[in-house]
Amino acid sequence: MKRLYGPEVIGAWERALHANVPSTPTDEDVTRMPEIAAVTAAVMNVGIGLRMRAITGEEIDVMLNPVVARAIAAGILKHGQEEGWLDGRGEVISPPLPLDH
User: Fold this and answer.
1) Rg (CA), the chain
2) CB-side exposure of 16: number of CA atoms within 13 Å?
3) Which of 20, 72, 90, 100 has the fewest CB atoms within 10 Å, measured from its CB?
4) What is the pLDDT of residues 15-74, one digit of tens each?
5) Distance between CA atoms of 40 and 83, rounded to whole angstroms?
């Protein structure tokens, strides 16, 4: 069976994912980022295209290859549960206030 892309392309995406890691956003960085209010997705055989709308009305488009899309999906589930805003089923919940509040 012919495939759209082979193991060499997937391997290149995986290497790029680990070789081109940007710095982790700081708390200060996060305060300057657009807050996304809505998103639509076009899922294709080459990945997923996202169109996001910020609360300011600005639209931001990104295309994620399958390796990046999977990494983001897994990271959201894992870290959302660790930080208390996703439950064990991946549903959004309200985390408790930190002890110093």
Assistant:
1) 17
2) 11
3) 100
4) 999 998 999 999 999 999 999 999 999 999 999 999 999 999 999 999 999 999 999 999
5) 25
